[in-house]
Amino acid sequence: MDAKAQRLVWGETLTMLGRDDDRILVIDGDLATSTRADIFADALPEQFIQGGIAEQNMVGMALGLSTLGYRPWLSSFSVFLTHRILDQLRMLVSQTKAPIRLAGSYAGLLNGASGKTHQDLIDLAIMRQLPNMTVLAPADAVEAEAVIRWAAEHDGPVYLRLARDPVANIFGTDYTFTPAIPVVLQDGEEALVISTGVQTVRTSEALRLIAAEGRIFRHVHVPMLKPLSTEALVESIGGHRVIVTVEEHSIIGGLGSLVMEHLSDAGMTATVHRIGLSDGWSESAPNPFLLEKYGLSAERVAAQIRVAVPAEALT
Amino acid sequence: MRREGKPPAELERIAREARWRVIETVASSKAGHVGGPLSATDLLVALYFSQMRIDPTEPMAIDRDRFILSKGHSAIGLYSVLALRGYFPVEELSTFDHGNSRLQGHPDMLLTPGVDSSTGSLGQGLAIGSGMAMAAKRKRLDFHTWVMIGDGEIEEGMVWESVICAPRYGLDNLTAIIDLNGLQQYGWPKSEDDRWDRGEPMGHVDLGAVFEGFGWNVIQIDGHDFEQILGAYAEAEMFRGSSGKPTAILARTQKGHGVSFTAGTYKWHNGVPTAEQLDLARAELMGGGR
Lengths: 315, 290
Description:
The structure holds two protein chains of two kinds.
Chain A: H1 6-20, E1 24-28, H2 32-35, H3 37-43, E2 48-50, H4 55-66, E3 71-77, H5 78-84, H6 86-94, E4 101-105, H7 123-127, E5 134-136, H8 141-153, E6 158-161, E7 183-186, E8 192-195, H9 199-211, E9 218-221, E10 224-226, H10 230-237, E11 242-250, H11 255-265, E12 271-277, H12 287-293, H13 298-308
Parallel strand pairs in A: 1-2, 1-3, 3-4, 4-6, 5-6, 8-9, 8-11, 11-12
Antiparallel strand pairs in A: 5-10, 7-9
Chain B: E1 2-3, H1 8-29, H2 35-51, E2 53-54, E3 66-69, H3 75-85, H4 125-139, E4 145-150, H5 157-168, E5 174-180, H6 207-213, E6 217-222, H7 226-239, E7 247-252, H8 275-286
């Protein structure tokens, strides 16, 4: 599959699924041309519901529709789904266990230069606190399609983190998604690097840069942050005691925190270095500028890994 | 599914008993709201004992009429009516707000037979009802969705998202009952034309004009007069499938109605009656003495 934006994969995949399953509805918060819900709307107008710029009402309608057998997807920018309507998600989705899916588009730092008001840097931290909520952050277009297909069948609430812009595919067409299980992308003698979402693709690239120096790191990707099998995570760590986590997300409450929680549950000790966004605000700028300034480009990630795990420390 | 269709005189008797169950339960649980449940009692009794097509032995029947108590803190009012209607034993009311009870402080659709939606955080019920009404239209199911909203509650912005959206989808199978009891927990400073001891939540708003302006049918009634209540419900049912618009019933009520010491005061938004007050309430509602 060519590199394709996850939002586009979402619009196309859901359209395919919706043709064969009339329980699938999309409720749009008037952002369809951005989130690519417009693909679904054009193909399946009877299954498309315009909710208007009224996200709170959208959640309530989704619950009402779900009580009669529908499986609605709410489509908006993730920042509106995870922040603006958190109370409704808590009351009407988490508490009720309803099969409502939240397609959080434009998640993370890169949102087409819309800037800090529309960047969602704590969505994973928020959503994984909600009881009964499944949290997904696919790496590329291939995995995005796989998790969308899985989510459509899941009998409970799902939050899906979707990136606006394309990244290179790291998975082949033979990729199979397994819920709650991390994916080992590469084995290595050096320390372990764990990443999630599209940042996994830039992390792979960073590890290739470091590999040119003769240092091969083990690399694990976490596509489903919740539920996450502690046992499977520990197995994926492969005995390493120095771990670097990388995420396009705040280092508070995201993947790095999650990894430490699971290590603690398992009674393991390890040194964990968290690479991600610090406790602050970002800005409006083109993607390369943001990735560079906020430390998430392949080069910047590689540099931070070199500092966190100096070559001499492991020899 | 069938309507119970009880006449006004019978509804009045049931409403007195429902009010008594509210007071008795709050007194024994030492927790709960009183004023809101009592203002809503007559509207609830008329729904469950006359208007709604329901069957307590089949609380999840697909073609039942739905009811959502958006003002979820009046849960004990709903539970009392559900118990009297036969959804669960009246004795179970004594478990209200106790550990391991099916009767939570706010309605829980996963726990309580007859509760069609979880509510509690204010402003959400009309959106849920809109989804149910929309689903009924899509599936060509023949049922009516009723949502009860408090007049303090409509200060929540989310309500107005739903008020704007529902007419767009022609949800004439959706009726909002606004319990205009004139008081909220503490409320606003009193102005000259306010009826009670605090300022009314919507005292400065012509709600009828507002709902009409948003494209709703509007019916204005005295929410303690069963003839008027049943008339309004029948009219709303007549609008279903014919008007293309959702209906708002603006029901003038009195907070704490039916019991002398709770009526018309914000101070009984919540509270626990003393033994003497309990005796007085029993005498006023059920007759006789201790």
